[in-house]
Design a protein that fits this description.
The chain is mostly helical and 159 residues long. The chain has five helices and no strands. 60% of the residues lie in helices and 0% in strands.
């Protein structure tokens, strides 16, 4: 066998581009890619609306139960119960990053932040009115700390 025979045999065995099978395989690949991209588009379009529907839950139950021992303040116990309800029992949506559906909500985060703002004002008033032993004395340290922490913005991301 000489070199010319080897070259002609290799050329005969090489698949030809643009043949019938190659174009059909390419069409199938493009069709499969388009179906996958369409599926991703549907998922992306449904992610926020469905997620918002599942996350949105304003707990405005006025029959909030709380325990008060003898000698304790009902107002302070109610404030503590509201803080526990909005931060531990319910999901805090005001702090959601942009890729979570809760970030697009407005009513639930505003409700939660409004409750925290009202409780911060309550803590400030308590420290001004009854948190001092005498009119010009220093404010109770725990009450001052609580008032300061309730003033912290609820939509700042903390990592």
């Amino acid at each position: 066998m000489n070199d010319e025979d080897l070259i002609s045999d290799a050329a005969a065995k090489r698949p030809q581009l643009g043949g019938h099978n190659d174009s059909r395989e390419r069409r199938d690949y493009v069709r499969l890619t388009l179906k996958f991209l369409g599926f991703l588009a549907i998922i992306a379009l449904l992610y926020y609306p469905v997620g918002m529907f599942l996350v949105h839950d304003i707990n405005d139950d006025v029959e909030l139960g709380y325990d008060v021992n003898d000698g304790e303040s009902h107002a302070v116990a109610m404030a503590a119960a509201l803080i526990t309800r909005e931060t531990d029992e319910n999901r805090w949506t005001a702090n959601d990053p942009f890729f979570l559906p809760g970030a697009v909500l407005d009513n639930m985060p505003n409700f939660q932040q409004g409750i925290m703002y009202a409780l911060s004002r309550f803590a400030i008033e308590m420290s001004d009115q009854i948190g001092r032993v005498r009119g010009s004395s220093q404010v109770d340290d725990d009450l001052d700390s609580a008032a300061g922490r309730l003033k912290f913005p609820g939509d700042d991301l903390v990592f």
